[in-house]
Amino acid sequence: MNPVNLLNHTEISAAQLRMLIRKGEITLGGNKKLKIYGLLSCKSGKRMKAENRVFFKDEQQAIANGFRPCGNCKRNLYKKWIYSVPES
């Protein structure tokens, strides 16, 4: 899967964001600087700056863009990811 353009929080209105979430076109959020994705309800994700926040339709889109799972809200996926990364 090729990386796609990310939907930045600062480029969308609150009303548009709510509509996309209701339609299921946005299901996950991510931090574009840290390259971490997680649930929209994650307490860590809610604390990030809007200018760093991006949105994804699904996990495949997040992974295709080089993001890793959040250790807080996606704990099981994070554990699989961390143990699959070779030590440097």
UniProtKB/TrEMBL annotation:
- Read off the InterPro entries from this record: Ada-like_dom_sf, Ada_DNA_repair_Zn-bd
> Which segment of the chain is annotated as a signal peptide?
none
Any one GO MF term held by the record is:
zinc ion binding
A Pfam family (short name) is Ada_Zn_binding
Record GO biological process: DNA repair; regulation of DNA-templated transcription
Q: Which UniProt keywords apply?
A: Activator
Q: Gene3D superfamilies this protein is in?
A: DNA Methylphosphotriester Repair Domain (3.40.10.10)
Acetylation among the record's keywords? no
What SUPFAM superfamilies does UniProt report for this protein, alphabetically? Ada DNA repair protein, N-terminal domain (N-Ada 10) (SSF57884)
Q: Which residues form the Ada DNA repair metal-binding domain?
A: 30-74
Protein name stated in the entry: Metal-binding protein
Which organism is this protein's natural source? Pedobacter cryoconitis
